[in-house]
Hints:
With about 110 residues, the chain is mainly beta. It has a six-stranded antiparallel sheet, with no helix packed on it. The termini are far apart. It is elongated and about 50 Å long. It is built from one helix and six strands; from the N terminus they run ββββββα.
Amino acid sequence: YVSSVYSNQANRQLLMLGGVFGYNLVSGTEFSRTVYAGIWGKYSEPYTILMPYLGMDYNGFRMGVSYDFQFQKSTTVRSPFNKVIEITLIYERKQDWYRTRPHPRF
Length: 106
């Protein structure tokens, strides 16, 4: 999929564009096994940031990692956030899971 964000507040602007591609390794099972690769770009004066992303679905878990490569137009401006790694872990249960388990009724 492809995504974009644009925001403008006071005299600051942010533009973010990117996308990710997924390849299904196993289909026809209860949970998919898919690998993902993508890249996003973020532009906000004076920084330009490229963020490659790698991820995977496995038995209801989605794991991913991205790293920010920061490019500056000005060498006099330094950011404390110039080396950022992001690790994500998401669990998605099967949609009808609650209907197959006994549960109290009120």
